[in-house]
Write a structure and sequence with these properties.
By secondary structure, the chain is an alpha+beta fold. It folds into two domains: 3-255, Glutamine Phosphoribosylpyrophosphate, subunit 1, domain 1, CATH 3.60.20.10; 277-461, Rossmann fold. The protein has 18 helices and 21 strands. It has helices at 16-25, 53-56, 59-64, 109-118, 128-150, 156-169, 217-222, 261-266, 278-296, 313-323, 346-356, 361-364, 380-391, 429-436, 446-452, 466-469, 479-489, 491-509, and strands at residues 3-8, 33-39, 44-50, 69-75, 90-92, 98-106, 172-180, 184-189, 198-203, 209-214, 226-230, 235-240, 245-249, 272-273, 276-277, 304-307, 331-333, 357-359, 368-373, 396-401, 440-443. The strands form five sheets. A seven-stranded antiparallel β-sheet has the order 3-2-4-1-10-9-11. It has a six-stranded antiparallel β-sheet with strand order 5-6-7-8-12-13. Helix 5 crosses helix 6 (156-169), helix 9 (278-296) packs across helix 10 and helix 9 runs antiparallel to helix 15. The longest helix is centred in the first third of the chain and has 23 residues, at 128-150. The chain is elongated and about 80 Å long. The chain starts with a strand and ends with a helix.
Length: 510
């Protein structure tokens, strides 16, 4: 999962600060690396490196990022390594000079990579985003040659034609912002709209328009832009350097199947994604859980509902309200430790949980507590939190997950590829409850989760829920693919790549 942003400001503006501010709003989507590329006509300026946004960009970097249009990226690694070379945006100089930032995962990247190598395209990294960049560059180059034959400039139809052929070749999930030097900004989305992308506009006092394309609507609201729309599955938007906006459907048979895990965990609650208020959907998850608990729980009276901060808070709050049970904050969160779910390696995640949360004994001592979290994936966090509650004096510890059991690998850009690492893999609810050390455990049903997310303005009732039901909407995932993915991205493989990256960095320093 990553965060992307692209802005075309007025021609006399400097866009770098806007993009920087937007990336800080999207920081929850990736903490591994950050990057910005800007353009002042034909010249490109770039800064990218590993680290948080605030650590990657200093004043000297911002001063060099000239121009009124640009793109930015925050990275959460799901493919490739964690070395600085994998930081985005990526760039290729032919044709025109194209830079690209991508959120998602191409499921046919190996075949595309081979095709590019056969076409003598050189790839510097193992990232599927660089593959996507070169596929786009190839197709724009074909349009460029046609334009030369006609003695005309590259136009919007040519750009949309190129993106249509990208969609014909690329499978999987992709939300993209790309910048064509001297021409403008492009945003496009895969034919299922798995990863989010939205469009915003800000009108200056003199009537000139500025445009933004970003992963979440909250980015636009925070920067004073109006959230115009969600870019549709298969749709492409082109904003010319002068501020004119064009859009066109560029995919055959598009279907709306956004990732439901955005609503569960990844997106900020103040975002609206594909017409769905993330806050409202999480409230409904809490109400659904409360109704299930009222029917199924027969143990001692629950004294208090305590959320696992932060993404479990909204569901917990509404669960407590619906069930007429006191709601209390029982954990103090260290704001300077990143999101443990998106950290690479189990040892790092477990260590970070201990540093991240501290219980308030007063809220636990002698009580039957119901802990509420957004989901349970590997179970490391849940196990630690249950033990913290017991150590703080809880008499009974119950646990509720606002999402169903995660059983299947996610192949569309979320770091859940190795099913053997899921605590729910091959276990009953009772066995999972015992494994995390709780006295009672309840999961949301998939039906209730889907209903919780189905009240948006676009009327969506079908989602990519593949990590819960194993139904891969792109239709190209088989057991062989899943086995290869698990070997490449399990925790052991990540640790080995991390060690290789550290050795390479030491070698380069020497």
């Amino acid at each position: 999962m990553c965060g992307i942003i692209g802005i075309v400001a007025t021609v006399d503006s400097k866009v770098a600060q806007l993009i920087y501010d937007g990336l800080t709003v999207l920081q929850h989507r990736g903490q591994d690396a950050a990057g910005i590329v800007t353009c002042d006509g034909d010249n490109l300026y770039q800064r990218k490196a590993n680290g948080l946004v605030k650590d990657v960009f200093h004043q000297r970097h911002m001063d060099r990022l000239q121009g009124h249009m640009g793109i930015g990226h925050v990275r959460y690694p799901t493919a490739g390594s964690s070395s600085g070379a994998e930081a985005q945006p990526f760039y290729t100089n032919s044709p025109y000079g194209i830079s690209l930032a991508h959120n998602g995962n191409l499921t046919n990247a190996p075949e595309l990579r081979k095709t590019l190598m056969d076409d003598l395209r050189h790839l510097n990294t193992s990232s599927d985003s660089e593959v996507l960049l070169n596929i786009l560059a190839n197709e724009i180059h074909k349009e460029h040659k046609l334009m030369i034959e006609k003695s005309v400039y590259l136009d919007t139809n040519a750009i949309f034609n190129a993106i249509s052929r990208v969609n014909d070749q690329c499978k999987g999930s992709y939300a993209v912002v790309a910048m064509i030097s001297g021409y403008g900004l492009v945003g496009f989305r895969d034919q299922f709209g798995i990863r989010p992308l939205c469009l915003g506009r800000r009108v200056e006092e003199d009537g000139r328009e500025e445009w933004m394309i970003a992963s979440e609507s909250v980015t636009m609201i925070s920067l004073g832009f109006e959230h115009i729309k969600d870019i549709s599955p298969g749709e492409a938007v082109f904003v010319a350097a002068g501020g004119q906006m064009f859009s066109q459907q560029c995919a055959q048979d598009p279907l709306y199947r956004p990732c439901i895990f955005e609503q569960v965990y990844f997106a900020r609650p103040d975002s609206i994604i594909d017409g769905i208020s993330v806050h409202a959907s999480r409230l409904e998850m809490g109400r659904k859980l409360a109704n299930r608990i009222a029917k199924e729980y027969t143990g001692e009276e629950i004294d208090v509902v305590i959320p696992v901060p932060d993404s479990g808070r909204i569901a917990a709050m509404e669960l407590a309200n619906e069930a007429k049970i006191p709601f209390r904050e029982g954990f103090v969160k260290n704001r300077y430790v990143g999101r443990t779910f998106i950290m690479s390696g189990q040892d790092i995640r477990q260590d970070s949980v201990r540093k991240k949360l501290n219980p308030i004994p007063l809220e636990f001592n002698g009580k039957t507590v119901l802990l509420v979290d957004d989901s349970i994936v590997r179970g490391n966090t849940s196990r630690k939190i249950v033990q913290m509650a017991r150590d703080a004096g809880a008499k009974n510890v119950l646990f509720a997950s606002a999402a169903p059991p995660v059983i299947y690998p996610n192949v569309y850009g979320i770091d859940m590829p190795a099913k053997g690492e899921y605590i729910a893999h091959g276990k009953s609810t009772e066995e999972i409850c015992e494994s995390i050390g709780a006295d009672w455990l309840i999961y949301q049903t998939l039906e209730d989760l889907i209903e919780s997310c189905s009240s948006g303005s676009l009327g969506l009732t079908q989602f990519d829920a593949s990590c819960f039901d194993g139904n891969y909407v792109t239709g190209d995932i088989d057991d062989e693919y899943l086995l290869a993915l698990e070997k490449e991205r399990n925790d052991g493989a990540k640790i080995r790549r991390h060690m290789d990256d550290e050795i390479l960095e030491i070698h380069n320093e020497e």
